[in-house]
Here is the input.
Amino acid sequence: MSLKISNLSVSYAQHQVLNELSVEGLESGSFTGLLGPNAAGKSTLFKAVAGLIKSNAGELHLNGVNLAKLSRTARAGNVAYLSQQFHTNLALSVFESVLLALKQRSKWRVKQQDLFKVSEILSTLGIGDLADKDICELSGGQKQLVAMARILVVDPKVVLLDEPTSALDLHHQLAILDVVRKLTISKGLITIAALHDVNLAAKYCDRLILLNDGKIQVSGPASEVLAMPVLGESYKVLTSLEQTRQGQLYVDAQLLAKSA
Amino acid sequence: MSTISKVSDIASQTLNTSSTELEKNWQIVQRFQQRTSKKLWLLSIILLLVISSVLLDISIGPGNFSLTTVLQVLLDKAAHGIKLEVIIWDYRMPIAITAVIVGAMLGAAGALMQTLLNNPLAEPFTLGVSSAASFGAAVAIVTGAGLMPNVGSLLVTLNAFIFALATCGLLLILMQMKGMGTQSIILFGIAIFFAFNALLAMMEYGASETQLQRIVFWMLGSLGRASWLQIAWGAALLVVAIPFCMTRTWRLTALRLGEESAMSMGVDVKRLRIEILICISLLAATAVAFVGTIGFVGLVGPHIARLLVGEDQRYFIPLSALLGALMLSVTSIVSKTITPGIIYPIGIITALIGVPVFLAIIIRHSKERGL
Here is the structure.
């Protein structure tokens, strides 16, 4: 199973957001980190792959199948997208909120197997105890896990996570990325996550892609991407590659001097 | 340390579920099924209350009849003579049934508007649909001019209906405009509300004393204009619109999570909005044209329904409709019982009962949630 993005271009009005972007080698069981400053085009790339917005040019192939040829629901079943913005102040139970994702692709009536599928994914993510609670009663980390359950319940092949850790404390950031990594491997998913913390991305992802101005600046294993001067240039900071005593690479960043 | 800390361990295990996990999953499913059956019971109880309220509404009035007498006349028209047949079948039943039909329409329209616009304050009244209907009615009363010729006594009702429908049409067009958010649509609705109120005031300024009386009476909202023809029209609309919306309830619940989330689940949000707004338009315009401006039912019905069954639209929409029906039916009873011999306009009573009930619910709810 592999995802191939070829010459993808997207523009809003006159503004070109993605410019002939191509990515290959997104394989089953791989966890890719998408880096880039704000307005680099990360969310636009996800929305274009998930089919939420139309691209001006380019093609997307999942295992050789052109995604544009799939129906809206078939595409949603293959490509799951976790948006940055979703309403969480709702009197909707955790179970209901996951069940509804499953019911978008099947008949109105709820079958016993639907219910078991929902309870299974909730247990897999360790949130079975929360099934009866309303979403509005949950903490930020729990809400994010429920959202993960909602996108995973349809057994997607591609999972796109738009800043899944942005509102979480350090413990929950690590926990979420850990579970994403493990599920990516166990379920054979093609996972791409937009992340702001380059060091966290380097720790959990097999591969990093740096996006800026709608173009891929660099792509490859963390050790290569973190060493590139273009990383600092894209974020408009000074970066230096350091190494911990355990041999883990990390980026130390500081603001550029005003004259620079 | 929350449940999240358990996550990595659980996820690292194989996905082949063990018997203890199966047992746990079965318990989760059972709990969900129990909650679902509770909701279905609740719907059934409210339905029974609506039926009881209708029977009570028919029995109460000048010359109270016992419930047994009412049931006998309902089953056999001639059971108690021609006098009772006329009173019950030609006068009281149309009023009692219209109250239920219009209440259900307002409740359902309010619930759908709130879901579609993601705002708990959206309802036909706050979005200007009722003001447009009032203006349409006033035009017919003052000038005698209708938008449809040769309709006789239905002139005022039809004018109100067409103006209300046209306003919904405007909201629909606005929704299709690029970059138009739900907030802008609500603001537009409020602007319509003020615009039609100003036009109405202008119409009232030029009206004669008799015409003014008719306008005011129309606006107060009354079930007195009920007829079997209206009931047939309203019932047919409900029978088509509610099941139509019910088949879209999974999509509507997805929309509650946000437009992007719904789209990522494969929902055609644009199409869903158009379909549901057409339903809302017909329901709201018909309800206001039948009984005049009745605020609050479209707001309170869905609000109570949300507190009782939450946001799952499979229960939220029918319960909102049933609660709307119950509210208006109870209002109809109260409007007859305050002063024997006088039937107060229903619009006044809805607000009088609705406001304190609504405030009590909000205060209790806020305390419970510690808001």
In short: The two ends of chain A are 45 Å apart (CA to CA). Chain A has nine helices and twelve strands. Chain A touches chain B through 62 residues (CB under 8 Å). The CA atoms of residues 141 and 168 of chain A lie 6 Å apart.
